[in-house]
Every structure is written in C-alpha cells, then in structure tokens.
Amino acid sequence: MAAREESQGDDDVTVPVLEARGVSLGYDGRTVLDGLDLSIGAGTVTTLVGANGCGKSTLLKAFGRLLTPSSGSVLLEGRPVGQLRSRAVARRLAILPQNPVAPAGTSVRDLVMRGRNPHQSWARPWTPGDDAVVERVLADTGLAEVADRAVTELSGGQRQRAWIALVLAQEAPTLLLDEPTTFLDLAHQLDVLRLVRRVNRTSGTTVVMVLHDLGLAARYSDRLVVIGEGGVLADGDPADVLEPTMLERAFGLRARVIPDPVTGTPLVLPEADEEPAPPAETGHHPLDQAG
Q1: How many CA atoms lie within 13 A of 228 on its CB side?
Q2: What is the mean pLDDT of the chain?
Q3: Closest by CA position to 226, among listed 98, 36, 75
Q4: Comparing C-alpha atoms, which of 219, 188, 222 is closest to residue 206?
Q5: Domain chopping of the chain, boundaries
Q6: Disordered: where is this region (predicted)?
Q7: Which positions ≥6 away from 167 have C-beta within 8 Å?
Q8: What's the pLDDT tens digit per position in 141-194?
Q9: Which of 52, 76, 99, 290 is the most buried if burial means most Cβ atoms within 10 Å?
Q10: This prediction's pTM
C-alpha cells in the first residue's frame, strides 16, 4: 500500500501508515507508556522488542484501536483511529492479539472465512473471489488438510496458524501481529515469519509485530523498535539497535552480538554464567563396590 501524500506548498509530505503522538497507556492503574512518539512507514516490517511488561503489546493494542490512550493520539493514515468506523478500520488494519479464542465448534475454514467480513455488505454478498482468497490462505498456512476440523481440536501450533490465516484473509494493507509465533516449534516459527515477509515483499503490506526472539526479529524485520522505560529506547536497523549496551539497558542482559553465519543479521549470544558449575564428583559410590 502506498502512503497517502499531502501537498504543502512545493513539498510532498508522506503520511505515516500508523502514528502515535504523545501516547500514554497503562492498565491496573499503572502507566506503562508515557508520552510515546512513534511512526510507521508504509511497506515496512517493524518489530517491537523489549522486556516483559514494557508495553509492546499495549502499544500494539492502541494501534489496533483495542485500547484507548489516556493522553495523546493514534493516527491511521493521518486520521485519528478512534474517529473511524469499525468496518473502515478493519479494511485497512488487521490485528492478531495474544491468545485469541474461537467459539466452540468453529471449523478452521469458518474461522478463516470471517476474515472476509469487512468486505461484505448488503450490496456485496459473498463471491467466488472470497472463496479463492480463503482457499489460497489455507494453502499458504499449511491448513488445507485440516480446514474442516474444529479449531479447538487442533494442536497449539495449528491453532496459531489458523488465526494467522484469518488475519491474512482480511487482506488489510496493514497487519498487527502480537507474538505470531506463540506455540510454534522452530520450524513453524520460520514458516510463519517467511510467510509474513513474503506477504510484505509481494503485496507491500505494512507489518508491525511483537517478537521475543531477538535473532528472528533481526532476521525478518526492516526495523527494530526497543520499548522500555515508558518510551522508545532505540529505533532503527537491527544491526544498529542490537548492541551490547542497549541489550543490558533494555533487558538487563549481558551479551555479545555477532553476525548470523547464515544471514549476516545480528545474533545475540548471552555471556556465560558468572558462577562456575560445581566440579563433578570423582569418587566411587559405595554401591559401585563389588562384594
């Protein structure tokens, strides 16, 4: 999706797809983010990283209009997201929250079909084109063979892929993914992130996601944003962001950063434990004695 442009005199100003302006957010009476500013450009893959509880998922919810800031504003394509109709937002923005729950008895295909709801109206009923989108997404996510099974009968990894398929079926130009690799083994984590990157590269889809694995975040992102201390601690190319001083500040982690031997992207290696392991016992146990 190309970002809208507004002319101001002789200059063209590109409007961010998403923007947080002075946003403060919290829960349970606690402020997590305070006066945060962040903009997301069109066609990029941006990953939010940071320690548990720093506000990554909270910010993603605000971008997706699931949480209202206590102060500041969130803009979608230059317009306050809170002022837009729900259907209009759903056509522009798809969000995968943490731990979604499907109604009992819902099949995988039925769940994925719900992704087409924002495109339906009395003037536009379900079409063969909608069927084609659903079948393509089921195939892309490796779910075609289990499409008629209930979501609740699937393994954790299959269930997570079903929710990702729902989001992809929505065909929104911007995707918000909160820990999309949850419950997946490493092979399926790679499958999902490759799929996300392929959608970004082939369709120009803007992606904002939360990941915990810093190596995978660096490998599959154009940009990393480190959240912490109530705001943005670092923002930029993964190679610039993932450096030892920042890792210790954001995560309390002493680590080395080396180039990934496969991709050349940053690979974080925690330093060895400070306390040496106790020496192994070398004596013989009494039961080992013959007699």
Answers
A1: 17
A2: 87
A3: 36
A4: 222
A5: 15-92+172-241, 102-171
A6: 269-291
A7: 94, 95, 96, 115, 175, 177
A8: 889 999 999 999 998 888 888 999 999 999 999 999 999 998 888 988 998 899
A9: 76
A10: 0.84
Q: Which residue has the tokens 């069109």?
A: 42
Over residues 86-108, mean pLDDT: 90
Q: Beta partners for 94?
A: 175
Please state the φ and ψ torsions of residue 237, each to the nearest 5 degrees: -60, 140
Is the dihedral angle over the CA atoms 257, 260, 264, 268 positive or is it negative?
negative
Host H or E run for residue 18: strand 18-27
Structure token pair of residue 115:
């992704």
Which uninterrupted H or E stretch holds 132? helix 128-140
10 Å Cβ neighbour count for 13? 12
The CATH superfamily label for domain 15-92+172-241 reads P-loop containing nucleotide triphosphate hydrolases (3.40.50.300)
> Of the candidates 222, 154, 165, 224, which has an alpha carbon nearest to the alpha carbon of residue 191?
165
d(CA 191, CA 12): 38
Residues contacting residue 1 through CB under 8 Å, at least 6 positions apart = 17, 42, 43, 173, 174, 204, 205, 206
Give the angle subtended at the CA of 159 by the CAs of 154 and 163, to the nearest 5°. 150
Q: Which of 196, 156, 233, 254 is nearest to 44 (CA)?
A: 196
Residue 220, both tokens: 């599959």
Rounded alpha-carbon distances, angstroms, from residue 37 to 18, 75, 116, 143: 11, 11, 32, 39
Residue 133: what residue type? V
More confident residue, 277 or 112: 112
Q: How far apart are CA 61 and CA 145, in angstroms?
A: 32
Angle, in degrees to the nearest 10, between helices 156-169 and 128-140: 140
The structure tokens 């903009």 sit at 39
